[in-house]
């Protein structure tokens, strides 16, 4: 993933095993579930101003900007539920799946982004 974001990011992780271990630890489901203290308000300005944002391909930059906009809305429910792959199927109706597919098609129009999931069981 670091290589996808930028060659320098991949190189940085290959050369710094402590940084890689830190990222691996902090991105586990258990770590994130146990630390609900993350501040959505402090996240927005620092993330949008980061050098990482300036060097992203347009599709990713738009996606991150949409994510930042989403953090402005009040949070309801648990942010992390179970950490089980495919559990979304237990929560989405067929109508919701169809609406989501339509939104994805619209949001990724003109890009090959969704081809990353061609061999994944997404209805």
From TrEMBL:
Pfam families: Sulfotransfer_1. InterPro entries: P-loop_NTPase, Sulfotransferase_dom. Residues 17-111 form the Sulfotransferase domain. Transmembrane segments: none annotated. One of its GO terms (molecular function) is sulfotransferase activity. It comes from the Eukaryota. Gene3D superfamilies: P-loop containing nucleotide triphosphate hydrolases. This is Sulfotransferase domain-containing protein. It comes from Haemaphysalis longicornis.
